[in-house]
Amino acid sequence: MRTFWKLTEISMQSHLYYRTSFIINIISPAILLAGQYLLWSALYAQQAGSAIGGMERREMFSYILIAFAMNNLLGWAGENTLSREIKSGTIVARCIRPVSFLTQYMAQMTGALLLQGMRNLVLVIVGFACFPEYMKIPEGGAVLTFLPCFLLSVILRLMMIDVFSLLCFFTTGYLGISWTRRALFEFFSGAVIPVVLFPEWLKRIAGCTPFPYMLQAPAAVLLGQEMGIGLPHVFLLQIFWILFFLALHGMTYGLVRRNMTVAGG
Prior knowledge:
Blueprint (H helix, E strand, L loop, with lengths): L1 H16 L1 H28 L4 E2 L2 E2 H15 L4 H4 L1 H8 L3 H5 L4 H30 L9 H27 L8 H14 L11 H8 L8 H8 L7 H28 L7
Antiparallel strand pairs: 1-2
């Protein structure tokens, strides 16, 4: 664990070194969040009733802030760090270090997550504190249940990104894979539209994918929303998908190493 946290510390230092990028990563998401609130405010203003798809305005506004904070844990650059290393060839450095490939990857991503997570936590606290009349305040018990669900969702998301990134070993570019992964995640996770608002047939399809358990499920747990399945099933499905992607990582990375030649290795 000492090696893991040392690598995490180095990752955090590298992100803090580029101050301009650090500031842009704070301002740009705030503009996007404001746009989401303007859009949903307009939709509720045109709605005859007080709810859209069973979600009240206060519940939706809380969901937007929470979902945004979880979705924005990793920016475009952070998500594609491994993909860019693969295409540039610098990935060989990971393969010759006396630390497992997956440990290096998870430590690096944890460094980025901790920095962005602290900013997002401040954003959520400020949002709920400054606009309590527009927000549904989570209960204490829901917060305690949310924490392990959120932790599992983060691990699941990192494993999913890892597997998609390893596919870049078999392509001539990484943008197509990255755009596909991002589009699938944004849609099926509930980042753009809550999964509970999907048509029933599309909701069933989404439930068969790992994406809702990366964002929709933790947000629903925090807000006390009905998910259609019990909380123990949510945890079991998150663990199942983590193990699924872990197995895919082992298979893909094993195939890569059998076909990779590292000078001096």
